[in-house]
Amino acid sequence: MRKITIDCDVCGTRVTLEQGKEALFEIGNNSYHLVDLCSKCLDDHLKAADSVNDTSGYRQRAAALIRLPGFTVPDRTG
């Protein structure tokens, strides 16, 4: 059986698609930035978020809709 993997858009860690999480970061009114996150980076951004909601994902059934202070988007650190 083949496994599909993704790279976390923040730290670069490679995880299976099932272990990754899609996150939509609000960057303005009706504007979003889609990223794939590993569970550690998702937890870090959920703690820093001004608000978090669930929404439909692009590839996955569900995604986190996150608004960070100042409508910022995480940068890749790896």
Task: Describe the structure using short key phrases.
single chain; 78 residues; mainly beta; 4-stranded mixed sheet; two-stranded antiparallel sheet
Task: Describe what you observe in this structure.
This protein is mainly β. The protein has one domain. It has one helix at 39-48; strands at 5-7, 14-16, 21-28, 31-37, 51-56, 62-67. The longest helix has 10 residues, at 39-48. The protein is globular, with a radius of gyration of 12 Å. The mean pLDDT is 90.
Q: Structural class given helices, strands, pairing?
A: mainly beta
Number of DSSP strands? 6
Shape: globular
Task: Quote the beta fraction.
Answer: 35-45%
**Average pLDDT figure:** 90
Q: Low-confidence segments, ≥5 residues, pLDDT <50? A: none
- Cα end-to-end separation: 29 Å
Largest beta sheet, briefly? 4 strands, mixed
Number of helices: 1
Total domain count = 1
Which strand order spans the largest sheet, edge to edge or round the barrel?
Answer: 4-3-6-5
Summarize this entry quickly.
The protein has one helix spanning 39-48, and strands spanning 5-7, 14-16, 21-28, 31-37, 51-56, 62-67. With 78 residues, the chain is mainly β. It has one domain (5-70).
